[in-house]
Each structure stands twice: as C-alpha cells, then as structure tokens.
Amino acid sequence: MGTAGAVLFLVLSCLTVQCFSKYEPNWKSLDSRPLPAWYDEGKVGIFIHWGVFSVPGFGTEWFWYYWKGYKDPAFVKFMKDNYKPDFTYADFAPMFHAEFYSPGQWADIFKAAGASYVVLVTKHHEGFTSWPSKYSFNWNAQDVGPNRDLVGDLANAIRSKTDIKFGVYHSMFEWFNPLFMRDQANGFRTQDFVKAKTIPELHELVNKYKPDIVWSDGEWMASDDYWTSKEFIAWLYNDSPVKDTVIVNDRWGNNTRCKHGGFWDCSDHYTPGKLVPHKWENCMSVDKNSWGYRRNAQLSELHTIEELIEQLVTTVSLGGNFLINVGPTAYGEIAPLYEERLRQMGSWLGVNGEAIYKTHVWTHQNDSIAHNVWYTSKSNSSQVPTVYAILLSWPQNNTIHLGDPIASDETKVSLVGYPGYFDFECSPSSGMVIKVPAIPVSRMPCDWAWVLRLTYLQNYKTKINPDAYSDHVEPIPMMKEPFV
Fold this sequence. Notes:
Its EC number is 3.2.1.51. It comes from Aplysia californica. The chain is of the alpha/beta class. The chain has helices at 3-17, 27-30, 37-42, 63-69, 73-82, 103-112, 150-161, 178-185, 192-209, 224-227, 229-238, 305-317, 336-352, and strands at residues 44-48, 117-123, 165-171, 213-217, 247-248, 280-285, 320-326, 373-378, 386-391, 399-402, 412-415, 424-426, 432-435, 450-455. The strands form three sheets. The protein has a seven-stranded parallel sheet.
C-alpha cells in the first residue's frame, strides 16, 4: 500500500471508530453530545428508592440524617419509643431482609405501567450500596441484610423480560463518611472521598451493569471540579461499555444543575410551567412527602391517578420526561397501592400512548380557551401530521371549543380508542368547536384524561415563539429539606 493509500485508510478507520469525535473533559464538549433518541421518545420512567432507610420506614429516606444530623424531635422520639438506647443506624441493615423481593415481578409491574426506562437507587446518601461493591466493604447488600446483588438481579430481570432501559441512581456523597467529612472540613481542597469512593463506585456500576442512564445526585455541596465529574463523563462518553447509548442528568456539581448534562432535572418535582430550551425531566413521587417507603403514610398523602396523569400530560406537553417514583418495602415488595397507581397509568397509556411516546411539543402547549387541554404532536414524513389535544376533564354540553387548532379541508377529529370521527365547525373568532357525541360509559376508551386526534390541521407544523421558553432555574434544595 502506498503512502497516500495508507493515509486514506487511516482517515477512513478513524471515521469508522469516531476517533475524531472524542469528547473532552469540559462542558462545551460534553454538552455537544447528541441526546440518544430512545430517551426523548420514551417519555415515561420509573424511579425506585430502596435501601436501609426502608427498614424504619418513617418520615423520609433521609431518616438517618434527620435522626442524627438534624436531630429532628419527631425522629428522635420515634427511635426512643421503639428501639433500645444504644441502637445505631447500622443496626437497621441486618433487618433489611428483602425476603419477598422478586425482580421478575417488579419487571412485570414496570412493563404494565408503560415505562420506557427504570432508574434504581443503587446508593443513597446513607452510603449503603445495593450491589456487592468492592469500595463499600460490609456496608452493602451482599454482605449484610439481603445477602444478594439487588442491582444485578433487577437489571437481569428487566433485560430478560422487557425492552425497558435500565438505569442507576448514585449519590456522590455520604452524610457521615469520615473521608467525605474530612474533605468537607478542608473546604473541598482535598479529594480523598472522591478518589476512594465516588469515582471508583461509578466506574464499577458502569462496567458491571452497563446502565443506560447514570442518574447522579448528592453533588450540591461542592463543584464539579471537586467531584471530577467532567473527567468521568468524558470516559463514559468515549470509552465506557455504554458510550453510544448512555445518558446522564445534570447533578454533577453545585454549578451544573439546569446548565449542563444530557437532560436536566434542575430540582426535585421540577415543573417549569413553560418550555425549557433543553431536554428536561420531572422526577416526582407517588408519595407527596417521601421518596422512600413510609409505614405511616396516609391515603391523602399519596397522589391520585388523576393527579399523576395530569403531571404526565403537562410534563410531556412542555417537552419533558416523566419519572415517577415508588418506594418498596424493606421486605422487597411494591405495596399494592403503589402497584395500583403504576398499573392505572399503564392502562391509560395502553389506550393513549400514541399521544405520549415519540411525540414532540407543538406550537401551543396549553389551549388558550379550554385551559384543561394540553397538546402534543407528531409530524414527520412517514406519519399523518397529527396534533393531540389531551382533555383533563370531559367536555360539558357535548361540545368543546379549542382556541388554537386551525382546521383545513382535510382535517378529521377522532377520539383515541373510539371508532369514527367527530363533527366540528370552524369558530368565527378562533379555533374550532368540536361536537362530542353521547358515548355510553361502557364504550368510553378510558377513565381519565381523554385524547382528541386532530389530523391535517393548517397549523400542524410546530413553530415555537422564543418568548415561550423559560430560563428560570429552580433553587437547589438544602440538606435539611430533602423533599421540596
């Protein structure tokens, strides 16, 4: 082979292995990585908060910190009333039996819920790892408590039984780890904890379980430089076993939320109320007051299915993904009411999923006249151009006036899950007035939030006004207020 041929071969080889597109450990380069399509198309995920905190099952998954760090009177009293005086938080770990943990059953529930991805808390701020980590010694699920690899078992079940993507949540810090506390006392000028725990654990998780999402948290006390986040993400994007498909969130330092990362979470329960100029996610929990399981939770403190569907619909209409959390019990079961909520959501998606999955934002998000109506759309070259009007309440008097859609001669209106087309008239002022026939209860396609399919509108193409975007950044929650 001549010199010119060798050079050409080298260039073509580099293009094949993408050696010209290495991501550098800086945010300009890392943020240039395209968002993997599966995440934006999937829309719906399940969050799972499960750990030693599930054993006391009281107040919050921040139980240890509220008891020994913040010294909240309610938590102090709970321990005094129910446990011997010398009881430590570590004593809860042997009680974390997970005896009824059935990963296959969980996978079935998540599939029935219509989830496209699952994010399992593999280590919360308590430091207990749900996998047999080499860096957690006997403070892990293999050596104490369940005596099994909780992460690996769930990953295998989900991948063998479903097409759901598997992700891992990992806390970058630990409340009472001596190495972290020493780094903190040193003003984060030392990185002993990061080098001994954070980064080795992240590499271990990625190499062992090959997650599709690395969902980082617990970063808010120090910058991304302390955590060496940019260097880790560069490795993740360039050289890890999931470099082509993995996605990360934005919690990589106290200077990164709502600024950097694959998708933005900004703050828990993030609901911007307007379009955001970046892919974002609304992570929220069925339990209004906790991410982890609470034995003393009241029915009124749990979201109804109507509330959850409203959150799902408004989130997707505004361009976000919906990550709904459940907290399993210490014995390894998803409590029946949580399972019911997930299955109800899946039942609704089974009918109306075409208005959620693989959709994108339309020119309008919330109708200008019918304020309980939200929009999504599909309009690529292989599909009938469609706008979906999602009704959070059933129209009164058999009519509904939509202010934003403009009908064409080809427009047809139908109810997703119901045969036939609805009559409509173009409004003299704006939009269209749709006549809804009397539908017997037995033939209603679903019980909550109904979807009108509007095809071939004059204005089906999405045209976003820049003023519709929000650059608002939510404040980072303080340590003593974890559930905000």
